[in-house]
Write a structure and sequence with these properties.
single chain; alpha+beta; FAD/NAD(P)-binding domain; Polyamine Oxidase, Chain A, domain 2; protoporphyrinogen ix oxidase, domain 3; 3 domains; seven-stranded mixed sheet; 22 strands; 33% helix
Length: 487
């Protein structure tokens, strides 16, 4: 490729948001960039398609405003005018036979206000009494990293873990709090917990002043921590790919990586029957941990890195999108509930773990009133946690029927959906189990010992889009510094 181009060649393996962002951050450098994406399209878990004439994200639907990497990248792309904010982000918990408001004064499910927690009705009387003991218990010893459930349960009891913390973490990681690392998944709280005896006080120290509330006690509109793009967050990859100027190759699966002469790299791409050799001066691995580990397994001196990468497990999930006529819900539709959706604790034995009322959370999806289209309500149901592989093996129509039945039980919606869509994300979410930070440190140290090699993606510093973008910028900077030093 480009045999007369003397610029250094950087190959990015993986065309998800991290790989595309890494290529974008190299756009002004004196290099040429090739992205090798093994699937038929770039974008990874970001894509958008229509259901009942409404463009709705099939994967990630929003990004955090509180982390500047995502909004900064959108601004760099010139898409600031395309940003839209949610109408409401207050949520409920469907447990103990009813929808209960998620306490506002909580940090990833860890409550800071016991009066508000009691008022929410999320816990039983016994669970509430146990949670209140946190304010009086002596310090809880913690030597190194521990599971979220172990520490939070020791302070606030099992019900807080099961009915608040686990649903929130399950929505992010599709994992379970008895396995997930306290230091890696809740780093700010883990740090604050070393300054306060009470975990509720530690959580409170991380929360802003109480936001304005309406007459029902729900947060007033405005000041949301989430944002998306008007056409769906799934439109971001196309903008990134174009703006990066990189050569994006789809259906190009990298099967082997090895050092080449002169301090460069050689990748084997394609099938064993028709392999292709691609030479690179530097390589960025923007694929999940285990594929990255397989590529590094044959690199001299990288066996320990490959082994550490292989330790990172992944969870699969599915998004079931349902479209209903607005008349199927009590007037005036989903907005009557006053929430953007609800979470479901795993202990309640439901298939659906989280539900988003998309047309409530994102009012722009309903379209302008003058459009004349019959109003529809869009609901996204998240299915699948670690250990629920059998559930995800069900056929699409079974998953859609199951999601619709559970939605009806929670909301009273009448009749079936007008349209359904099932999007499966196999091996989508890395599990930040106990010891994750040490694991990542070992990976990064081993990669740094390989000249011209960098890694990025959700396996390292966070599964959200801003975190992935942050790792992409760091990887691009690492490669740029290597090439500059070599010149």
């Amino acid at each position: 490729m480009h045999p007369t181009d003397a610029r250094p060649h950087v190959v990015v393996v993986g065309g998800g948001v991290a790989g595309l962002a890494a290529a974008f951050f190299l756009r002004d450098e004196p290099v040429r960039v090739t992205i090798l994406e093994g699937t038929p399209r770039p974008g990874g878990k970001l894509c958008v398609s229509e259901i009942e004439g409404v463009a709705v994200d099939e994967g990630a639907e929003a990004l955090l405003v509180t982390r500047p990497e995502g909004t900064g990248l959108i601004a760099e792309l010139g898409l600031g005018g395309e940003r839209v904010d949610p109408g409401t982000t207050s949520s409920a918990i469907w447990t103990l036979g009813a929808l209960h408001p998620l306490p506002r004064r909580q940090f990833m499910g860890v409550p800071s206000d016991m009066v508000e927690l009691a008022r929410s009705g999320v816990l039983s009387g016994e669970g509430m009494a146990r949670a209140s003991q946190d304010l009086e218990l002596p310090p809880t010893a913690r030597d190194g990293d521990v599971a979220v459930a172990r520490y939070v349960g020791a302070r606030l009891g099992a019900e807080v873990v099961d009915r608040l913390v686990d649903p929130l973490l399950g929505g992010v990681y599709a994992g379970r709090s008895q396995d997930l690392s306290f230091d890696a998944t809740l780093p700010a709280l883990a740090t604050a917990s070393r300054k306060y005896t009470s975990l509720a006080e530690a959580a409170g120290s991380l929360l802003p002043s109480a936001p304005p509330a309406d007459q029902d006690g729900r947060p007033a509109p405005g000041g949301s921590v989430f944002t998306t793009l008007a056409g769906g967050l799934g439109t971001l990859p196309e903008f990134l790919a174009k703006a990066s100027g990189a050569h994006v190759r789809t259906g190009a699966m990298a099967r082997d990586l090895s050092p080449a002469e002169g301090g460069s790299w050689r990748l084997t791409v394609g099938s064993a029957a028709a392999p292709e050799q691609v030479d690179a001066d530097a390589v960025i691995l923007a694929v999940p941990a285990r594929p990255a580990g397989r590529l590094l397994a044959g690199v001299p001196g990288a066996s320990a890195v490959a082994a550490a990468l292989a330790e990172i497990a992944y969870a699969s999930m599915a998004i079931v999108t349902l479209a209903y006529p607005r008349s199927a819900f009590p007037a005036p539709g989903l907005a009557a509930f006053g929430w953007s959706g609800y979470l479901v604790p795993a202990v309640d034995g439901r298939a659906v773990k989280a539900v988003t009322f998309s047309t409530v959370k994102w009012p722009h999806l309903t379209g302008p009133p003058e459009s004349g289209a019959a109003p529809v309500e869009i609901v996204r149901c998240s299915v699948g946690r670690v250990g629920e592989e059998a559930l995800l093996q069900r056929a699409d129509d079974e998953l859609a029927s199951l999601a619709a039945a559970e939605l009806a039980a929670a909301t009273g919606v009448r009749g079936g959906p007008a349209a359904t869509r099932v999007t499966r994300w196999g091996g989508a979410l890395p599990q930040y189990t106990v010891g994750h930070l040490d694991r990542v440190a070992r990976i990064r140290a081993g990669v740094a010992a390989q000249p011209g090699l960098a890694v990025c993606g959700a396996a390292y510093d966070g599964v959200g889009i801003p975190a992935c973008i942050g790792t992409a910028r760091a990887a691009a900077s690492q490669v740029t510094a290597f090439l500059a030093a070599r010149r």
